[in-house]
Amino acid sequence: NAFVALKDVTHAYGSGDGFPAVEHLSLSIAEGEFAAVVGPSGCGKSTLMKLATGLQFPRAGTILVGGAPVTQPVRIAGMAFQNPTLLPWRTTLENLLLPLEIVEPHRSRLKRERGSYVAKAERLLAQVGLKGQGGKYPWELSGGMQQRASLCRALIHEPQLLLLDEPFGALDAFTREELWCVIRDLHAERRMTVVLVTHDLREATFLADRIFCMSARPGRIVAERVVDFPRPRD
Ligand code: ADP
Ligand code: ADP
Questions:
Q1: Which residues' Cβ are closer than 6 Å to ligand 1?
Q2: Residues in domain ABC transporter (predicted)?
Q3: Which of 29, 46, 120, 209 has the fewest Cβ atoms within 10 angstroms?
Q4: Quick check: helix, strand or coil at residue 102?
């Protein structure tokens, strides 16, 4: 039972150089699976993410998420990017609550049950090592702390699908590996489907159940490997 399925998908940008960003791309990710997509810069990884979440619509091919064709931005998805993109005029906690202000049914509930959502946000912050930091503004946090907060924001509405586009790219090696463990524990606990885009093979093999390798020009999946060797637990 595929949770994310792309079949023969081709997409080109109007303002691009004429080459499709992805071409005849197919892939299938099972529900609850942790998938990684690896490939060189510019091969179409971000485009694949945008297509899977309905931020871009393909020129050709079909895309199903949770069994349904993607016809609008996918609300059951949470996303975190290389750049944490927290709003500077909101505290960290208020940044975490942001998706709830947009996505139903949380939007209507937030007015009545703000306290329970705040408690949930604080629990999430504690899980990623940011206990008690919710009142700080993003610019009072280090890059690694902002990245953790942005991960919490992606998780606050309990998405069935979590998309991570190079979320550890800008971090120092120590913080990065610490966050790998955080993500792995979150996945073990929640069992949401995760798609991680990275050019770090070590990161992919540490985290993912299945690795898709992409080529550039044409941007498509050229290999798929199941990671079934035991990995260290802390
Ligand atoms: P990756 O994430 O693997 O680095 P991208 O999906 O960002 O790759 O880009 C794939 C190709 O599509 C690249 O050639 C890139 O220049 C092009 N591209 C990406 N986004 C746009 C855009 N908004 N407009 C035009 N071309 C784009
Ligand atoms: P990533 O680090 O995810 O590979 P990129 O550096 O490829 O991201 O792209 C950064 C931003 O610039 C993205 O929003 C992408 O859509 C946009 N972009 C990338 N390539 C092009 C392009 N050739 N023309 C216009 N926009 C682009």
A1: 13, 15-16, 21, 39, 41-47
A2: 4-234
A3: 209
A4: helix
Is 168 within 8 Å of 151 (Cβ atoms)? no
Predicted model pTM:
0.86
Reported as half-sphere exposure (CB side, CA atoms, 13 A), residue 199 has a value of 13
- Please state, as a whole number, how many other Cβ atoms lie within 10 Å of the Cβ of residue 72: 9
Question: Which ligand is closest to the CA of 21, given by its number?
Answer: 1
| Residue 50: per-residue pLDDT | 94
ipTM of the complex: 0.65
Question: Of 9, 46, 79, which is best to mutate to test ligand 1, by the most ligand atoms within 8 angstroms of its C-beta?
Answer: 46
Residue 207: band (very low, low, confident or very high) from pLDDT cuts 50, 70, 90: very high
- DSSP states of 153-181: HHHTT--SEEEEESTTTTS-HHHHHHHHH
